[in-house]
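Handout, page 2. Input:
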Amino acid sequence: MPKGRKLQSPGESSRLRQLPHVGTGSPRFLFILLAPKRHRFSRSRQPATPTMIFDFFRNLFRPHPVKTGLATSFATPSDFQAYALAKAQGKSENEALAIGDNCIGCWGDKTNGSQAYCAIPPEHMIQVFGSFAAAKHQRVLVNYGKRSCVALIGDVMPHLENIHNGATIDMNPALCKGLGLPVENVSVTVSWSRILDSQTA
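Output:
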């Protein structure tokens, strides 16, 4: 047992006695000891269900590789100006978005504010998070040189086959600033990885 690791707190000891058939060799007992505190006991003190145990261990052993690739910027001031000018000229929404950026992510987030956002291709969303829907607002750690910044996935890039500049991640101005980069015309190599629930920013 690692130094400083407590097997049970006084509160947990009394709760364990209230859970029927919890032996030290059962998966339920292991889940109680290893799961994050917010998952150990509900307010009603119900025992861990098989689904909870399965989800916990699936997340524990699921690989979370670090991805490295070319990063560009999106939702920049010049992007929004180009979009606004196109709309003022009477162009359609799709035409304006092909020229600039309305700075609204695919889930409705304002991507040019103070929150650090990034966008990745749908293929990477599926590979890392399981699905497009599951990638919504997931936290990722983006690294550039000796600097790192936590960002939320707030938008989606085109499919990889439709990206012609080789970029695999887009970074909004707040994320660029967090990495010490300019907000316009960014083209650098970064690495990023998913942040697990049990990790701290």
